Fold this protein.
Amino acid sequence: MLNAKIPAGPLDKKWTSYKSTCKLVNPANKRKLEIVVVGTGLAGASAAAALGELGYKVKAFCFQDSPRRAHSIAAQGGINAAKNYQNDGDSVYRLFYDTIKGGDYRAREGNVHRLAEVSGAIIDQCVAQGVPFAREYGGLLSNRSFGGTQVQRTFYAAGQTGQQLLLGAYSALERQVALGNVTMYNRHEMLDVVVVDGKARGIIARDLVSGKLERHFGHAVLLCSGGYGNVFYLSTNAMGSNVTAAWKAHRKGAFFGNPCFTQIHPTCIPVSGDHQSKLTLMSESLRNDGRIWVPKKQNDTRKAADIPEEERDYYLERRYPAFGNLVPRDVASRAAKERCDAGYGVGSSKQAVYLDYADAIKRYGKIEAGKKGLDHASEAEIIALGKEVVKEKYGNLFDMYEKITGENPYETPMRIYPAVHYTMGGLWVDYELMTNVPGLYALGEANFSDHGANRLGASALMQGLADGYFVIPYTLGNYLADDIHTKPLPEDHPAFVEAEKAVADRIQQLMSIKGTKTVESFHKRLGKIMWDKCGMARNAEGLKQAIAEIQQLKKEFWSDVKIPGEINELNPELDKANRVADFIELGELMCIDALNRNESCGGHFREESQTPEGEAQRDDANYMYVAAWEYKGDHQWELHKEVLDYEVVKPSQRSYK
């Protein structure tokens, strides 16, 4: 049985009770304990900074040239917190409830309530670090709305919230580096976990510049390596984002939780052709003021400006009047796909819908005209004033759209379409964020824990910082309190020697294939299989085909991939080959998990399981569990189930109408 180690007692007292009773490590002993942190995005940088400040000896690893380049920097719209600054009815309970409901009742209550509890402290921490959150005229922090909620709880810094939060965490991290509490290893990639007597005791890392393999001991290993959306090839993730660290842990015994739960973001710039290697996200914050629509007439080739109001279908407002354009991401994505599949799509590809700011510009313009006493302002003056307000709130996003598409979104509606964005699945962890391998932890997007089958917008930054700043310092101490007498293992320990040899042998095997096809070509083929058969909609027949196709792709990869260059040098193609090999194996497991979960929930939409209105139809009687998969060998996994027990929220059919 999987033990989630959720504390006893009332839900709103569990975390307080845990903190009050967990074991502690005294300051002198902390200096003797070494922690390995893999990844330095929001979760990793905040964890390394917090643990370094507590006095632990921390080694932090990132494959970029600087922690500032972590993919957290790309987050745009904001970070949630239950501070109720707007006095609109928000509370810790409401944030907890919205997150559980938004995840379609497939998340663990204890973890989600803790996340809601610490959310307010995250904002205070970041303000103290100097994060320049947007502010109201009177100086209070500003809030805006995100999908799946009816309150304004999202704090933001224009359209670059992730960048500003990461700079705050990076500053805290670099301070600990300067103080000697954290040692940074840039341009290093973790290629294996070292397990001794059943406990994680370090990693094998590769210096990506020299190609040299290194052994690093740790009393505990924290994986903060992000999500696996690039298994689809085209996604909003940075090109380097990968599953390798988590997958190596999985192959060493860590269970992989809910791998089929992937999020399709509804507001992305549509695919423009086969030449593309990634997609660009347009922040969900744009749904605050933008209205989404398609023509009421099928295959309408008119320009947006030529389609009169009465011939426009604001389909989200029509189908979901209570939430309108701010329904959760999975709901908005499926609705856009349904309209496009039915022949109402726009643009040359017909795989897009409009996101229109004309109404918002006029509304803001009238407010500004009123402020300035311009009682008889012309429509042109009102529009000019409105554009200035929109520019202040969303300007960098509008500029980004124009640079990519060549179209001015102030004058003509943006064209958007859903794209792969976030992965709710990840390494299975308990309440303490520890995997089933003692001493091995997973934080942020690398774990499965807080979002169920769909993540609400602006909750990724919240989870990453909550895990790093406010959860792991307590839970890690609770584990290490029993480990203070363990001496660091020498680098020539047999477990390190064996692990390094396995990594070296795999690299040698890859380099010796000397085939005819590029790594990129295999990644593209995998992505097409995954998007077509395990993307926004899945069915049993397609998933069975995908599993067979991926197994064949794996055979082909290991017999015909071409990797130029040498091992002991800077070799990005070799790095990529390692990652794509892991993606191929993960893709197979994702399809197996999706086939096993014969229900629709959140971002996992099985065509066989839907309501008459086309909404996701859960099967609580048979699937109210976390699917935790154990690796048993090539093409073989064993399913373990963590049953989800809802004590406070009673699951019901989600409705945003």
User: Anything to note?
Assistant: The longest strand covers residues 414-423. The mean pLDDT is 97.
